[in-house]
Design goal:
The protein has 219 residues and is α/β, with parallel strands linked by helices. The protein has a single domain, classed as Rossmann fold. Helices cover 47% and strands 19% of the residues. It has a five-stranded parallel sheet with strand order 2-7-1-8-9, sandwiched between helices. Helix 6 packs antiparallel against helix 8. The radius of gyration is 17 Å and the shape is globular. 35% of the residues are buried. Bound molecules: adenosine-5'-diphosphate and guanosine-5'-monophosphate (5GP). Guanosine-5'-monophosphate binds next to strand 5, strand 6 and helix 4. Guanosine-5'-monophosphate (5GP) binds next to strand 5, strand 6 and helix 4.
C-alpha cells in the first residue's frame, strides 16, 4: 500500500471529526493529522490530541517559518496543517487523515496532487442543524455563522473526488473505508450530488431566513 493524504471536508456539524476519530481508532493503517488553531479549546478537547492550541502570534510565527502545509481563516480563527504531522504519519507508512475546511483542501490539492478529497454531506439540513446545535459547543451566533459558511462549502462538494452521506455512522465509515482500500478509487459514485446540494442549500437558506425574521428564535 502507498500511504496517501485523505482530506475530509464538510459543513460544520456534518460529522467529519466523528468519522475521522472512528477511522483512526478502528484502523492501524490510518493516522490523524492534529491541526493547529487559534480557537479556544472546547470543554472536552485536549491539547496535542484534538488540536495544538496556539496564540495568534505563535500561529503566525510558525506560519512565517514555513511549518504549515496549508492554513486558512475560519469564523475568525486560524487553522492549519503542520508539515511535521503529515510527515510523521506518512513516515510510519500510514495514510493520514486531514479534517480541514475547503480553502485548506484546495491548497493541499495544489501541492499534493495524489491527495484524495472526500466531502461529507449531512442527510438533510434539519439533521445538520440538529447535530450542530446538539453538540452544544457553539453559541447561537456562532451556529449562524457556521451555517452561513456551510452554504459556500456545500457548493464545493461536486468538485471533490468522493461524496459520502453521513446518515448512519457505520455506513459512512464503510464507504470511506472502501475509498481508502480502493487506493482513492471507488466503484460507485454517489448519484445526484448536485441535486442533493441544491436541496440542502435551499433548506438551509430557509432556516436561516426564518431565524433572521424571527429575531430571537434560534435556527
Ligand atoms: P464536524 O466535525 O463535521 O463539525 P462532528 O463530528 O463534531 O462534526 O459531529 C457533530 C455532532 O453530530 C456530534 O455531536 C456528533 O456526535 C454527531 N454525529 C456525527 N455523525 C453522526 C451520525 N452519523 N449520526 C448521529 N450523530 C452524529
Ligand atoms: P472546529 O472549530 O469545528 O474544530 O473546526 C472548524 C473548521 O476548521 C472545520 O471545517 C475544520 O475541518 C476546519 N479545520 C480544522 N483543522 C484545520 C486545518 O488544519 N486547516 C484548515 N484549513 N481547516 C481546518
Amino acid at each position: 500500500m502507498t500511504p496517501s493524504l485523505l482530506i475530509l471536508c464538510s459543513p460544520s456539524g456534518a460529522g467529519k471529526t466523528t468519522l475521522a476519530r472512528r477511522l483512526v481508532t478502528s484502523r492501524t493503517d490510518v493516522g490523524f493529522s492534529v491541526s493547529a488553531t487559534t480557537r479556544p479549546p472546547r470543554e472536552n478537547e485536549r491539547p496535542g490530541v484534538d488540536y495544538y492550541f496556539y496564540t495568534w502570534e505563535e500561529f503566525c510565527r510558525r506560519r512565517d517559518a514555513g511549518e504549515f502545509l496549508e492554513w486558512a481563516e475560519y469564523s475568525g480563527h486560524l487553522y492549519g496543517t503542520l508539515n511535521a504531522e503529515v510527515e510523521r504519519e506518512l513516515g510510519r507508512g500510514r495514510h493520514v487523515l486531514l479534517d480541514i475546511e475547503i480553502q485548506g483542501a484546495w491548497q493541499v490539492r495544489a501541492s499534493r496532487r495524489d491527495a484524495v478529497a472526500i466531502f461529507v454531506l449531512p442527510p438533510s439540513a434539519e439533521v445538520l442543524i440538529a447535530r450542530l446545535r446538539g453538540r452544544g459547543s457553539e453559541s447561537p451566533e456562532e451556529v449562524q455563522r457556521r451555517l452561513a459558511r456551510a452554504d459556500e462549502e456545500l457548493q464545493a462538494a461536486p468538485n471533490f473526488d468522493h461524496v459520502v452521506v453521513n446518515e448512519r455512522l457505520d455506513r459512512a465509515l464503510e464507504e470511506i473505508a472502501e475509498i481508502i482500500d480502493g487506493g482513492g478509487v471507488r466503484a460507485q459514485r454517489l448519484p445526484d450530488v448536485e441535486a442533493r446540494v441544491r436541496t440542502l442549500r435551499r433548506d438551509l437558506a430557509r432556516y436561516r431566513q426564518e431565524n433572521t425574521n424571527s429575531g430571537t428564535r434560534q435556527v
